[in-house]
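User: Hi! I'm working on a homework problem where we have to compare a predicted structure to a textbook description. Could you give me the structure for the chain below?
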Amino acid sequence: MYELRIRTSFAAAHSLRDYNGPCARLHGHTWQVEVVLTGRQLDGKGMLVDFRELKNSAKKVIEELDHQNLNTLEPFTHSNGGNPTAENLSRYLFERLRVEFSGLQREVKLALVRVCESPEACAAYWEEEQ
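Assistant: Happy to help. Predicted structure tokens:
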């Protein structure tokens, strides 16, 4: 089994609804994002996926969030019920990236997306094998 891992980042603001503490106020982070792919077979060049392809797909999704107030984006609006926590953000990115990677020719699995709002605070989302 092979694993590829990339890291990227974006800047965005958010506030946590129904939260008793300073994070209920609008504040920002430079969010660090880690994307992990796994697979059993390499291509003819000896790659699971070209890092450039992986980075470009991640960039496409993350650009939608960069320099935004996450609370105003559809998945995190109050009416949609998606509080813009690190946990919900990791799930959202996982679901969006899974769509991006669905066109790959060989069997590659999006294994995990980790989102860190600081070096000390991270959340991850993955799906268990069915």
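For your comparison, note the following. The CA atoms of residues 6 and 55 lie 7 Å apart. Helices lie at 51-62, 86-101. Good luck with the assignment!
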